[in-house]
Amino acid sequence: MPKWILVVIFLIILFLLLLIVVSRIARVYFVKNGENLVANLLEGIDKESSKTIEREDMKKLPAPVQKWLTNSNVIGKEEVKTVRLKQQGRMRTEKNGKWMPTKGEQYFSISEPGFIWIADVKMAPLVQLSGIDTFIAGSGKMKIKVFSLFPVVDAKGPEMDSGTMMRYLAEMMWYPSAALKPYIKWDEIDGTSAKATMEYNGISVSGVFYFNEKGDILRFVGKRYREVNGKYVLSDWGGINKEFKEFNGIRIPSKSDVTWFEKDEEFRWFEVEITDLQYNVPSLY
Fold it and tell me: Is 19 a residue whose pLDDT tops 80?
């Protein structure tokens, strides 16, 4: 084998090794930044007073919402102030695109609504995306980097504020007692559906929760901004729940498909499973 080929192979291997080492170091800093955001989000919450949820607290809610909260086992339990959870699943960016394995941690504050989502997406062998999605004080941001180094998404603005608030509203099904918070208003549609409107820091989003006769949430649909050809377009978005499980005695959807509901068909782009969930533990995993 010619000597120059050996040199090229050596340089390629050296570059790959260097990239792996540098990306691992970069990921440590990337995750550390996310953890600092979590610490700020959860600071002081453990000192907040809490109460036990009583049936009387639900009397003004629509009937299907009351049935959901009862079925979720929140009555007699302490109201949720914080949530931390682990999830796994897979996502894709196009209808017929390749599914990419995903793992993430998410942290929520409830009294002052907010969340931090820290995730890794395996794009290809040796190629990984690191992402942080945040909703803090009514503002939303998303950052995604390849190898935790090279930015591919750095989104913020009114559409992100609305979109992350919509996500918070939809994911309320993982922390049902938040349905009682004053920033959530309810309107009954019929015996198995109700519209929720969230208003916070001058922003308002709405969506419809659909329940079965037992009180489980089957799906959620609301208008969320979606980037199409470089522009944000309000589109039907939501989730379809496939399985349910109890965490800390609270029954929630444990497996869900996150979907864009298009006119001709559904674009199922994220399949997610909750693998661990803890309430009122205001600290990092």
Answer: no
